[in-house]
Amino acid sequence: VQLQASGGGLVQAGGPLRPSCVASGIIFRRYVMGWYRQAPGKQRDLVATISSGSSTNYADSVKGRFTISRDNAKNTVYLQMNSLKPEDTAVYYCWAQQPGYRASWGQGTLVTVSS
What we know:
This protein is an all-beta fold. It is built from no helices and eleven strands. Strands 2, 4, 5, 6, 9, 10 and 11 form a seven-stranded mixed β-sheet that branches. Strands 1-3-8-7 form a four-stranded antiparallel β-sheet, with no helix packed on it. The chain is globular.
């Protein structure tokens, strides 16, 4: 499994950003996909997941601001982030898991939100 995340960067508070993650080596449509994030000095936390049937789940801190989506034809999962806050600054990691199997992680993409 290879997960290649991109689309992080520096953005001002209130602005949008849309990282994406391309998966290879898997039957993408079978996998639950997700995003986690890790801020400096903190643990890695769940941001959002999307099931093979496109059911979504969000951390309370991002509900109403972030939207996860997937394109099975492109083996890609997206995280549309709006109304960004400085506390959203973190490395964002792509995650993939076929139910019943071990999860896989991407390399992460840095999101920095300036105040």
